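FAQ

Q: What does a record look like?
A: Structure on top, sequence underneath. For example:
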């Protein structure tokens, strides 16, 4: 059986201005990753190492300079990736129009894609978004409520893969646990979490990946052991 999503030899360079003109700085250096249906994967690593760049490429929001992405064993275009993969940014409120009500924000993808209207309330229920808040404006919602609204919005299109790019980092631990429990009940949904502090996700049994030097390193590598020491020091300072 083919993995849900496979990315092979993904390369990406970012253009920056240097002393001698424009430079193309390598960010991703031949990344290979595969994610199975319903699997939870955690991508961690220091800031600026390419985690979000990889996530946006997998979601069809950016293009790789080189490499192939497949869905269920077949090459996928950017449009196909956008249809099957949803990306939620670090501040979930950024993906929601603050002038919309929660109902309008969750409904927007359904209206754009002309999907069955019933998906809106089904997705809100899946995300455990309080129905009493559907009439509230996005700016009136708390951080946790915005996160659930963003997840509900993504679920309306029935994605195969949900990417959460530090989307829970601003929430307190009990609320993070609640949202992870909600997502765990969606057994067919694969999730890719981008996170610095991975403690909760490690407890969930998620597969851990480290981005280091523009490539992925496994949990037994020297790079991972060095990152583990950084995390332990960081947690000890909190």
């Amino acid at each position: 059986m083919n993995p849900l999503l496979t990315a092979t030899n993904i390369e990406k360079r970012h253009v920056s201005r240097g002393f001698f003109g424009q430079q193309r700085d390598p960010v991703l250096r031949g990344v290979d990753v595969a994610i199975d249906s319903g699997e939870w994967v955690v991508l961690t690593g220091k800031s600026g190492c390419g985690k979000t760049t990889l996530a946006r490429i997998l979601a069809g929001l950016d293009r790789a300079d080189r490499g192939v992405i497949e869905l269920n064993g077949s090459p996928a275009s950017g449009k196909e990736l956008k249809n099957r993969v949803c990306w939620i940014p670090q501040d979930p409120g950024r993906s929601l129009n603050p002038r919309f009500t929660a109902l309008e924000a969750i409904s927007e993808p359904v209206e754009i894609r002309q999907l069955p209207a019933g998906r809106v309330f089904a997705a809100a229920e899946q995300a455990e978004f309080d129905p009493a808040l559907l009439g509230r404006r996005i700016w009136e919602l708390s951080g946790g409520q915005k996160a659930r609204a963003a997840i509900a919005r993504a679920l309306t299109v029935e994605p195969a893969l949900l990417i959460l790019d530090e989307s829970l980092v601003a929430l307190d631990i009990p609320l993070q646990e609640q949202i992870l429990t909600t997502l765990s009940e969606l057994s067919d949904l694969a999730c890719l979490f981008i996170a610095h502090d991975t403690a909760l996700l490690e407890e969930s049994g998620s597969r851990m990946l480290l981005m280091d030097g523009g490539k992925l390193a496994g949990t037994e590598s020297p790079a991972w052991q060095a990152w583990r020491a950084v995390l332990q020091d960081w947690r000890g300072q909190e």
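Q: Is there anything notable about this one?
A: Residues 222-237 form the longest helix (16 residues).
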